[in-house]
Design brief:
With about 120 residues, the protein is an alpha+beta fold. Helix content is about 15%, strand content about 30%. It has two helices and five strands.
């Protein structure tokens, strides 16, 4: 498919789990979306674009709760720019591995946003 999109420009949308995630053209006919979830299971998705001739793509992705150190046949190689939460049991919250690596600061972050909103005249 030929089009005049600059690499790094948003041009596709991933529709998954009642959410929409912006995706980008990477050049050489490659596109990417940065998607993150805490849910496990198989989720249906579609990818759409305003690009003329871009076909709607439908599929499903399976997210499992296995250690990143355990290789699975269906694993996708993410390259050298991958990061994630610490998966030790001490970082499990509400059944979600790694959630405590950020959840422990949730209250502080939400209270800070509340103070900022009040400062801006919010209620």
């Amino acid at each position: 498919m030929r089009h005049d999109i600059t690499p790094g420009q948003p041009c596709i949308t991933l529709h998954i789990d009642r959410q929409e995630w912006e995706g980008y053209y990477m050049g050489d006919g490659d596109y990417m979306v940065r998607y993150s979830t805490y849910r496990t299971g198989t989720l249906p998705y579609s990818i759409t674009s305003e690009i003329a001739g871009f076909p709607v793509q439908n599929g499903q992705i399976t997210i499992s709760d296995t250690s990143p150190r355990t290789r699975q046949e269906a694993d996708y190689a993410v390259g050298g720019h991958w990061y994630g939460d610490k998966w030790g049991e001490e970082n499990r919250w509400n059944g979600h591995r790694g959630a405590m690596t950020v959840f422990r600061w949730r209250r502080d972050a939400m209270e800070d946003w509340g103070r900022r909103c009040r400062w801006l005249g919010g209620r």
